[in-house]
Amino acid sequence: MTIFEKSRKNRTGYSLPDEDSLEVQIEKAIPEELLRSKDPSLPESSETEVVRHYNNLSKKNFSVDSGFYPLGSCTMKYNPRINESIASLPGFTELHPYQPEKTFKGALELMYDLKKLLSEITGMKSFTLQPAAGAHGELTGMLIIKKYFRSKGEKRNKVIIPDSAHGTNPASAKMVGFDVVEIKSNDNGIVDLEDLKKQIDEDVAGIMLTNPNTLGLFEKDICKITEIAHEKGALMYYDGANLNAIMGKVKPGDMGFDIIHLNLHKTFSTPHGMGGPGSGPVGVAEFLKDYLPVPIVDLDNEKGYYLKWNLNNSIGRVRSFFGNFNVLVKAYSYILMMGKDGLRLASEMAVLNANYLRKKLSTMIPTAFPGICKHEAVFDGSVLVDDYNVKTIDLAKKLLDYNVHPPTIYFPLIVNEALMIEPSETESKENIDNYISIIKEILVEARNDPEKLKKAPYTTPVRRLDEVTASRSPVVSYRQETEG
Amino acid sequence: MSNNPYIPHSKKEIKEMLTEIGVNSIDELYNDVPNRLDSDLDIPEASDEFSLRRKLKHLSELNSSLDDYAVFRGAGVYKHLIPAAVNSLASRGEFLTAYTPYQAEVSQGTLQMLFEFQTMITELTGMDIANSSMYDGASATAEAALMAARITKKEDVLVASSLHPEYIEVLKTYCFGADLNVIPVKYSADSGNLDFEDLKEKISENTATLILGYPNFFGIVEHLVKIKELLPKKVLLIAVINPIALGLLEAPGKLGADIVVGEGQPLGNPMNLGGPGLGLFATREKYIRKTPGRLIGQTKDLDGKTGYAMILQTREQHIRREKATSNICSNHSFNALLASIYMSLMGKNGIKEIATRCLKKSHYLYEKLLKIEGISPVFDGPFFHEFVLRINKDKTIEEINEKMLEEKILGPLSLERFFPNMENCALFCTTEAVNNDDITFLAGKLEEIL
């Protein structure tokens, strides 16, 4: 039942300080034609009912706190509670962005230090913490590329993106007016160098790459790729979605990347919050540092930590204020908690878990490409169709009945019936073993009664939903009966 | 190193797993990686959570928490009273640690919450539809401009100079990317409202949209109906709202707005130094397929039971790639949750009560301050809970605010920061979070300082 149906006239869930009414007449302050003619129909409930409503809603959610959530490319690692505890300190939450700078020196120090840590982890010279999410970071990066060539007087209008890339990559490139040129993956699931050489020319402004790529494979020719790009004057953009595989092992800066974004909500353990807020800091090489959005947090011998407003070629702001500060606190807390050894260990164990899962699962469902993977593995689900007469989605939906989360499915687009599994380092061996045995059991069920599997799940709060009709005739708000 | 509480692997398990994989060492898993690091990262050693908390608590105390301050500053981020139930409910792990509801069957909590959030935003704004959130008010405004340009196939974006200056900056950044022109429209020096004559001059056959604040940055309530009448039929009107103000002000959907965006932070979200915010985005039904961001729709399951799912995903980047309506992927669902719980607790009467208190307190303060010698009005347009005053004294606004800080008061914003021609002008704000005594104290203190 929606909260609107639980609403009862004049019920309230708040109490406010009892104060004398001030001698101000609303009608005198605001002309009558600008005042509301009808009150908004917000729900009217007691605090008890509101608490029960949201509490009950929360029980209909699967989350990292509920169980194994190996959603590929999303790095659903455990979100440490200490991060939440620290981020909710009033000295961090009760800050106004326009209070005097000298009254938030602690916040500035935190942001400055976080930038330095991210620089060290990635090998980039300078960072902005402004972007609100990964895709927002990509947009920032693309704007930097556009501005860079604009100021050099060059008209480059193309961006090269592999066919395995996240959908945000082409969408971000398009938002700044670039034409997207797709390059193929080769038989080993990595960038086809021959195709790249064919496609690249002086009109190419940049190449967007994820490394490890979305197939979970490391682009071993990465140094060759960056060399080819730089020879033609193009910039290399690193999508940091998969940084969780390589912390303390290799730096994007050392691979030759010029611009990168990170997803603090993936690699750096800040909670996904049902879709956000995330945070997508962007790091650049030395020659691009003046293109970053302003303001930048900097350190000066005399002024201490301060906000720097003048950068020669800045692309301007990409959002208001200083970024998703609350998320930055959590990521900072995580990095300090883990330390240098902990971060490296996280990457190593993430890769170990993925390979262990790959090896064990591939006896039932083959991987899309051969060889060692990094933090995630992608499987070709064609066998489900051919041998079991079910589809990847049916397997995914049945997993819900076992109280584990399915993998990312039907992505990357270049793999048939794809299953993309990223266990992350915070899962134990027995959790992975358990997942494998569940899949094994489901395949037995599929063999015995494929039709039954096609209607899974059976035990979830709702069963398969009719998304086609929902999109054909959208109902996107609760239609309330008209009342006064 | 000491044990890591988040990584469960024992040495024995690692060995077993390596054997299963068929390699001898972890390093072998990285054989294909060139330019590998041969030394440790130059970052500190691991910490335990207790030492870490002590260290970061100390860092947080270098900031002046406004928890116990009377705050007379808004300008885009507002200190409101937030009922305890908001944070207590929202911090449940089932909300906090879930991701985008890709698997609808086990995400009904998220989906129903967002569906109800969309409903509440359509109620407040008077629009047909609302999406499930954007990053913040500024980027939502920029996305609205891009959407207007897509719909009208025009390139000129008119923006009121009285819109929040940082929103204008963000708008310019996005428009640089999209090759659109941003053209400022003046505000009237007398009223603080949009300058109708300048608007008429700026409108051309290339105009895609007009964007303005409702209320605007100076707190002034624009007359949307009159403005809409001046716009050619195909030009879209984008109103940038403060949701609290809509407890009293007429819904922009009823006044001709085509897209309504805004910052949802005032709805139950802490200030957090300005981030994360909550981007609100609402529009007319006919533009639903042009809308950026996630949309949640109601539907039925196999058994005919009501449920909710993400809909019209073919607009989005993960399906449409470069043909998507936006690149947005993450949104601010968690902030939408805070706002939803807040609106549920406040309800129809509460939102009006809060808006009324904000308005009354600010008008009361306005009258009170005008009685002080050397303080004069700047605009005469109707205002909601923010207003501009000129302080003609030998003291600068910064100096005055410095004195105020000693009394645990965050005074008004000096407008010179954004408007160099507005010397000695200060933007005041009051919400229900300042009590009447604070107002009397501020006025008294100001008189004393001057």
Structure write-up:
The complex is a heterodimer of chains A (484) and B (450). By secondary structure, chain A is an alpha/beta fold. Helix content of chain A is 36%, strand content 11%. Chain A has helices at 26-29, 47-58, 81-87, 90-93, 105-122, 134-151, 168-175, 193-199, 222-231, 252-255, 325-361, 382-388, 392-401, 429-448, 450-453, 467-472; strands spanning 126-128, 158-162, 179-183, 204-210, 235-240, 259-262, 282-284, 296-300, 304-308, 377-379, 408-409, 419-421. Chain A has a 7-stranded mixed β-sheet, with helices on both faces. In chain A, strand 5 (235-240), helix 10 and strand 6 (259-262) form a beta-alpha-beta unit. In chain A, helix 3 packs antiparallel against helix 11 and helix 6 (134-151) packs across helix 7 (168-175). Chain A is globular and about 75 Å long. Chain B has helices spanning 11-21, 49-60, 84-90, 93-96, 108-125, 137-152, 165-178, 196-202, 224-230, 317-320, 333-370, 397-406, 436-449; strands at 70-71, 129-130, 156-160, 181-185, 207-214, 236-241, 259-263, 279-283, 295-300, 306-311, 375-377, 386-391, 409-410, 413-414, 425-429. In chain B, the strands form 4 sheets. In chain B, strands 2-8-7-6-5-3-4 form a 7-stranded mixed β-sheet, with helices on both faces. In chain B, strand 5, helix 9 (224-230) and strand 6 form a beta-alpha-beta unit. Chains A and B meet through helix 2, helix 3, helix 4, helix 5 and helix 6 of A and helix 1, helix 2, helix 3, helix 4 and helix 5 of B.
